[in-house]
């Protein structure tokens, strides 16, 4: 199920003092495998100091570019992000899983007005989405609100300016800086007043089709709540978390039994017994079963599986819709079995 392919890094380019963009060389034989929709991500697997590390990174290039690029911001005490910024060079080979993810844009050929709110490295998938929206229809418009500490720490700043020059009034950008005051930029963070400025002032007469939010959980919650208070349907608000707050595992506190679990992965069935206090994905990986996963924190969608028998309860869920949960889908990295038997299917998702 974890279908990784070895890809060569074609180039490594600095974006800011603490971020780089990696471009991968995609062999002709893998062109279809690595085709993607705007907004999707890839999972990179690599061994660092003898330990396997997996990380999910959003694709920043547009599907029309014929390239596959990801932006990686160095995180303090990070493992792969530090390695990517300091060690990776052109010619290196990394194991990469084909693109996946639900935070996507697909043109419907009609005129669309799209708005996005991003902070920090949350701009990465938005770059792909923005370019795709603007290319899809000559009447499409894209409004971007982008928050950072200061200009020199703003990922893709030059590329965003280039998009402004290319698309003129069809592409509007509102930069927001929390550490410095700049002409024509807002000072502070993206908050309720920022959203209202866009909806009720600068673009008062514009009817937006969809909103894309990407960044820290607090920002996403603020923007989403403000949009809904302005009458925007939840169905038109799409978000992807790059970081999330820790959630206390209250589910495990009330469990103290064993579960006989059956796992279907790549048409192969595995059976074993696990503690209910253990998360399903953790138990599966302990059995050396090659189940798909990436973040293990409930912010990507790599580990989704379907419950076909028994029940499981998730500690948190910020990805699956209510209808998907109702039909049996779970994030296995967040789920505890709550019945004596449980069957999960990674193939039927």
From TrEMBL:
Pfam families on file: FAD_binding_6 (PF00970), Fer2 (PF00111), NAD_binding_1 (PF00175)
Keyword match Flavoprotein: yes
Cofactor(s) annotated in UniProt: FAD
Source superkingdom: Bacteria
Record's keyword terms, sorted: 2Fe-2S, FAD, Flavoprotein, Iron, Iron-sulfur, Metal-binding, Oxidoreductase
FAD-binding FR-type domain span: 2-106
Residues in 2Fe-2S ferredoxin-type domain copies: 259-349
Listed name of the protein: 2Fe-2S iron-sulfur cluster-binding protein
Protein's organism: Croceitalea marina
């Amino acid at each position: 199920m974890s279908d990784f392919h070895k890809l060569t890094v074609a180039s490594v380019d600095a974006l800011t003092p603490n971020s780089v963009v990696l471009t991968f060389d995609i062999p002709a034989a893998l062109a279809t495998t690595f085709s993607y929709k705007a907004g999707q991500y890839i999972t990179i697997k690599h061994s660092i100091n003898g330990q396997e590390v997996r990380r999910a990174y959003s694709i920043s290039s547009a599907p029309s570019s014929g390239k596959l690029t990801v932006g990686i911001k160095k995180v303090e005490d990070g493992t792969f992000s530090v390695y990517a910024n300091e060690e990776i060079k052109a010619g290196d080979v990394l194991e990469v899983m084909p693109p996946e993810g639900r935070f996507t844009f697909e043109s419907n050929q009609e005129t669309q007005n799209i708005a996005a709110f991003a902070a920090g490295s949350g701009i990465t998938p938005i770059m792909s989405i923005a370019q795709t929206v603007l290319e899809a229809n000559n009447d499409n418009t894209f409004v971007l609100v982008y928050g950072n500490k200061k200009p020199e720490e703003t990922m893709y700043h030059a590329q965003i300016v280039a998009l402004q020059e290319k698309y003129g009034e069809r592409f509007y950008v509102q930069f927001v800086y929390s550490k410095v005051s700049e002409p024509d930029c807002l000072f502070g963070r993206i908050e309720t007043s920022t959203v209202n400025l866009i909806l009720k002032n600068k673009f008062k007469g514009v009817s937006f089709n969809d909103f894309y939010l990407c960044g820290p959980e607090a920002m996403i919650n603020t923007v989403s709540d403000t949009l809904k208070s302005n009458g925007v349907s939840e169905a038109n608000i799409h978000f992807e978390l790059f970081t999330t707050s820790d959630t206390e595992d209250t589910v495990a506190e009330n469990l103290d039994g064993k579960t006989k679990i059956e796992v279907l992965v790549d048409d192969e069935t595995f059976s074993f017994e696990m503690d209910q206090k253990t998360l399903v994905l953790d138990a599966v990986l302990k059995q050396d079963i090659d189940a798909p996963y990436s973040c293990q924190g409930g912010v990507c969608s790599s580990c989704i599986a379907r419950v076909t028998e028994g029940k499981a309860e998730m500690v948190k869920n910020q990805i699956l819709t209510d209808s998907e949960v109702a039909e049996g889908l779970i994030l296995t990295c967040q789920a505890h079995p709550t019945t004596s038997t449980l069957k999960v299917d990674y193939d039927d998702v």
